[in-house]
Amino acid sequence: MSKQSTPKPRVPRANSKQAIETARLARLESYAQTLFDELNRSVFSDGLKGAQLLWSKTLQVTAGRASFRRHQDGRTETKIELAIKVLDCEERVRHTLAHEMCHLASWVISGRPTENHGSIFKGWGQRVEARRKDIKISTTHNYEITYKFNWKCDRCEMHYGRHSKSIKPEDRCGRCKEGRLMPQWEQRTRKPRLASTETTGEYLPSRYSRPGAYTFQIHLCVRLLEPRKCPGLQAAHSTMARGGKGRMTLTAYLPATTRTI
């Protein structure tokens, strides 16, 4: 019995967009983890050692989010989520991660789970800024988010950005209520289909194996959708059958004037 070989995972090319994006994300993840360990040791005295550091694809506008949960048995669960689509450089990761760590310190170390951006939070922020001169703790961010898809209103020129093609062609501008939203990326035009295929099959007696054996015969029918664009090409019918011993037969009915499209 032959062993089935497991398919190897596809590895993107080194210069492809997927490979570049994967390498960028891996670099930011490593930087964030190193910074977290450093601040936790030098500023928070390892008080946030059990916190999880996660990267989220669902955060669209918020740069980061910290959460704290206390279970009935006394266990605590803490985690920090960083937005992949917002934090695209080390500077943004540095400021956002330090901000969220100050939230966790207020809840876990200071024991104030209802603290938001009050005096306790600002006190932890001052400790971080004193330790790292390249970090500034603020209560909000004004990061300009880079969107993959952008639209512009053809009347008031209002811009809209999305990470997917969620805006439909029939949608109207939310500001002027009248303008159409025009895509700002290059759109590919698909070639029109010239023919459609229809496949049917049936079991027929096989002449390649023992008496009483059957083979499955496939019938392929090609219909032209726009005959004017295909001069000399007519509808085609082909039959393909696999015999009992692995033989393959192909019968095609094409006119002599057939041209390749």
From TrEMBL:
Which residues are in the SprT-like domain?
29-184
Q: Name one GO cellular component term.
A: nucleus
GO biological process terms, alphabetically, are: response to stress
A Pfam family of this chain: SprT-like
Which ranges of the sequence are coiled-coil?
none
- List the signal peptide residues: none
* SMART domains, alphabetized: SprT
This protein's superkingdom?
Eukaryota
Q: Under which name does UniProt file this protein?
A: SprT-like domain-containing protein
Query: From what organism does this protein derive?
Result: Cylindrobasidium torrendii FP15055 ss-10
